[in-house]
Design goal:
The protein is mainly beta. The protein is built from one helix and five strands; from the N terminus they run βββαββ.
Length: 116
């Protein structure tokens, strides 16, 4: 019997952050993977270290993605924990629109520009 622990998370990037730690730097990706009928957002956290982190570090907030993950479970005391680690990231469609800064207001016609 062959076993596999994998998952696919598809949705919109909510946050990408870098977290320093004793074992090195990790990158945390949060994807909103809500389906119709959900009353609250289903925000899923995916954590990558080293090579895994490179692909998720480049993602932008609001971008639609599909993330293929390894599922890692462990027992600590009497509690069970599950972590998702990225294996492959697929961008879905176009990038989110970039926010352009507003142009600086031009001085009024009756005002003289400052000499410096």
């Amino acid at each position: 019997m062959q076993t596999e622990a994998s998952a696919v998370i598809a949705g919109e990037v909510v946050e990408v952050k870098t977290v320093p730690g004793k074992a090195g730097e990790r990158v945390v990706l949060v994807v909103r993977a809500s389906e119709k009928g959900y009353q609250t957002p289903n925000e899923v956290e995916i954590t990558g270290w080293g090579e895994e982190a490179r692909e998720i570090r480049a993602l932008l907030k609001g971008e639609a993605v599909k993330v293929f993950c390894r599922v890692r479970g462990r027992l600590w005391g009497d509690r069970r924990f599950v972590n998702l680690h990225p294996v492959k990231v697929e961008r879905q469609g176009a990038l989110p629109p970039a926010v352009e800064p507003e142009p600086a207001p031009e001085p009024a016609a009756d005002e003289e520009p400052m000499p410096f």
